[in-house]
């Protein structure tokens, strides 16, 4: 069966002129590494001067641009892209601004990723690398010792990914491929959650419906600026995540190798 086309969704917000350049670098990288794929820039209500620059730049780079007006925040912006993709019969790949792709066919590898059952994975993600050569995160795991979610392989050399196998685990919305059928099945992101917790919530909802989320270690994006990939245990979204999934055993996300 022929797979659905993919829409790359890049949720952005530029508070100042300094925020424009990392966004543009990501769009250029997407055009170079996935030239046949449509890119939708969803602007999370940037101030008017920055929004105008982003709209013009997106057009010059052959990217679609839309200002999201149905809510506020990253999750609301993601949902604009998910809705647009489903309406046009497309899968989605969320790509955060400030990332660069250094190899071709990264999207094809996410599209081809299967789960332990041999079926196409409901969600597939890649690793995010820091500029200095360490890993920011390669998905998430639940620490039984800390009783909290944490970033996999955080601060270890990126070479470890060269010997890593695909792994069942929640994956970050920094680089997250979602199949259309699963968007139709579980809906969009929770608008009341942000950051890693929103991505964790989405993957847990997929899991609850019988889908699989898989980290594909050969797919990597390098960040222009350093950032902490850990879910913040003090964030308001942490409490909502625990409340929503209070009856779920997180042990089902234990590392399971996918051949």
TrEMBL record:
InterPro entries: Nucleotide-diphossugar_trans. It comes from the Bacteria. This is Glycosyltransferase.
